[in-house]
Design brief:
Layout (H helix, E strand, L loop, with lengths): L1 E6 L2 E4 L4 E9 L5 E8 L6 E6 L5 E3 L7 E6 L4 E6 L8 E9 L4 E4 L3 E6 L1
Parallel strand pairs: 2-11
Antiparallel strand pairs: 1-3, 3-8, 4-5, 4-9, 5-6, 7-8, 9-10, 9-11
């Protein structure tokens, strides 16, 4: 099992910034990937940004150039720096841990991000 603890959500005005953190603990073995997804009210959960097992990054078109995903391998922690936030970025942001050996995905509890106009 893998446990994920997220932090950093909140309320911010449009144009502002937030930084999300997600720390993984438990049965962690390489290769694995970590990333961020979000779910807006009435919409399906969507990918925001992710690391793959090879270390490359992928971003949703809607956030590319504004959001940056980074990680601290020694701490099994992934971050999401969100700049130039827009009201449409509002939603619950979920951290995801992908165990590529066991082919399991684990999810954090979610952290609310609200961007006011």
């Amino acid at each position: 099992q893998v446990q994920l603890v997220e932090s950093g959500g909140g309320l911010v005005q449009a144009g502002g910034s937030l930084r999300l953190s997600c720390a993984a603990s438990g049965s962690i073995f390489s290769p694995f990937g970590m990333g961020w997804h979000r779910q807006a009210p009435g919409k399906q959960r969507e990918l925001v940004a992710t690391f793959t097992s090879g270390g490359s990054t992928t971003y949703a078109d809607s956030v590319r150039g504004r959001f940056t995903i980074s990680r601290e391998n020694a701490k099994n922690t992934v971050y999401l720096q969100m700049n130039s936030l827009k009201p449409e970025d509002t939603g619950v942001y979920y951290c995801r841990f992908s165990d590529y050996v066991k082919r399991n995905n684990y999810w954090g509890q979610g952290t609310q991000v609200t961007v006011s106009s």
